[in-house]
């Protein structure tokens, strides 16, 4: 029933020299119409009128047009967008206003996620070039939408061929030359595509861009190096990604970087990233295998936890918590004997009188270390976690209770987690009753 008013408003807009009020009325009409109802309303509507009104310096007019189109275009199938509004979409990609670019890239993402839409996109290499160019736009939200659209395109073999076996690859490389930030946005795209499947990784590797990214791990610029480590850690999220990194000798290289970091005065800028890489590796594969093959990883984590450094200690605490979350990780930590006992004592000191944020992270790590799901509560493991808890203080229960009474809500929550964990694993009836009592006091 709204088709006629919308068509009528479009006619009024077409005839007006200053159509801002008519545009606002149209915005009200389309927002009041369900998307299902808009399908009929826009089927014969001349949306080119609205697209044309984007060509102005009037920010208010652009804003209203974007709101209208954002709503109306939802009613169109992706294939309709690709077939009927190709010119308008291309204009939107090159529009100086970021809101218009965002709108256009969102619609391009819809098209790229549709089988027939992909075919239409691949027939328009100029549009794809413009999408790639949007990666270099200053506003990060625009670049993210461009990366998302290209990632969807890469879900098909035809899309992979277009991006990595045509002139579009040269366009990607040209965009990378803009600056360091843009280069890493392209790496983000490459890593995202690579993690999808071994086939996708093969395309990206053959493009030479992964090798280029890996070379930056040992570059002179420590900030670039730190960013490269983040990218490599993302690549390692997939099993085939980890296999590739191992085959290329990258995991060994990162281990050597940790060793060399001891004599590098700027290591605090990238050492946390190296530790996160191995922490991620340990959880996804095997804590025991990783820690045995790369012993420097755990040594550095212990050192970072003991030597209170505001940059390094938080990462060490998080890593210990992640490692200690699994039974295998607990056993690996226990095998280090006095080394880990010293770390636990340092953690208790941080939890008791460190900076508030550090205390919270410390308590969260301790909660993970002490947690044992019911199905894992063997006598040996219960005694292990009990011994760890008793390492914290001569009166660990009182220590945690004192922390829970301090006027910091975030500390209350973290302390509560430890009491909750202790209720589940207490080997002493008195301790269990004390945990229950204190937990109730915190909750009240």
From TrEMBL:
<protein>
    <submittedName>
        <fullName>26S proteasome non-ATPase regulatory subunit 5-like</fullName>
    </submittedName>
</protein>
<dbReference type="GO" id="GO:0043248">
    <property type="term" value="P:proteasome assembly"/>
</dbReference>
<dbReference type="InterPro" id="IPR019538">
    <property type="entry name" value="PSMD5"/>
</dbReference>
<dbReference type="GO" id="GO:0005829">
    <property type="term" value="C:cytosol"/>
</dbReference>
<dbReference type="Pfam" id="PF10508">
    <property type="entry name" value="Proteasom_PSMB"/>
</dbReference>
């Amino acid at each position: 029933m709204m088709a006629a008013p919308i068509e009528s408003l479009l006619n009024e807009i077409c005839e007006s020299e200053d159509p801002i009020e008519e545009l606002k009325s149209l915005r009200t009409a389309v927002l009041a119409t369900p998307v299902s109802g808009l399908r009929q309303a826009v089927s014969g509507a001349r949306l080119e009128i609205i697209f044309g009104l984007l060509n102005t310096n009037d920010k208010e007019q652009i804003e209203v047009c974007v709101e209208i189109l954002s709503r109306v275009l939802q009613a169109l199938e992706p294939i309709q967008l690709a077939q009927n509004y190709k010119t308008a979409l291309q204009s939107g990609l090159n529009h100086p206003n970021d809101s218009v670019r965002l709108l256009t890239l969102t619609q391009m993402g819809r098209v790229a996620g549709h089988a027939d839409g992909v075919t239409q996109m691949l027939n328009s290499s100029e549009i794809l070039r413009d999408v790639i160019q949007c990666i270099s736009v200053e506003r990060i939200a625009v670049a993210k939408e461009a990366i998302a659209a290209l990632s969807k395109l890469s879900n098909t073999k035809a899309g992979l061929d277009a991006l990595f076996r045509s002139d579009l690859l040269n366009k990607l490389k040209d965009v990378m030359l803009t600056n360091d930030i843009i280069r890493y946005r392209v790496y983000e795209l490459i890593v995202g595509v690579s993690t999808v499947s071994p086939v996708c990784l093969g395309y990206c590797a053959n493009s030479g861009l992964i090798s280029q990214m890996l070379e930056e791990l040992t570059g002179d610029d420590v900030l670039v190096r730190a960013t490269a480590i983040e990218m490599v850690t993302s690549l390692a999220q997939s099993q085939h990604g980890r296999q590739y990194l191992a085959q290329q000798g990258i995991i060994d290289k990162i281990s050597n970087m940790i060793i060399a970091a001891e004599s590098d005065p700027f290591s605090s800028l990238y050492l946390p990233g190296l530790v996160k890489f191995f922490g991620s590796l340990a959880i996804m594969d095997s804590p025991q295998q990783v820690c045995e093959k790369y012993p420097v990883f755990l040594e550095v984590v212990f050192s970072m936890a003991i030597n209170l450094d505001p940059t390094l200690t938080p990462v060490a605490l998080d890593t210990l918590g992640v490692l200690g979350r699994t039974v295998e990780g607990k056993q690996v930590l226990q095998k280090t004997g006095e080394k880990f006992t010293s770390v636990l004592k340092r953690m208790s000191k941080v939890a008791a009188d460190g900076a508030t944020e550090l205390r919270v992270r410390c308590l969260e790590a301790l909660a993970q270390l002490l947690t044992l799901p019911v199905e894992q509560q063997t006598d040996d493991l219960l005694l292990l976690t009990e011994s760890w808890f008793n390492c914290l203080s001569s009166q660990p229960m009182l220590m945690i209770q004192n922390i829970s009474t301090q006027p910091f809500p975030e500390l209350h929550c973290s302390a509560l987690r430890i009491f909750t964990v202790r209720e589940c694993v207490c080997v002493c009836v008195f301790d269990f009753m004390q945990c229950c009592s204190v937990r109730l006091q915190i909750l009240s």
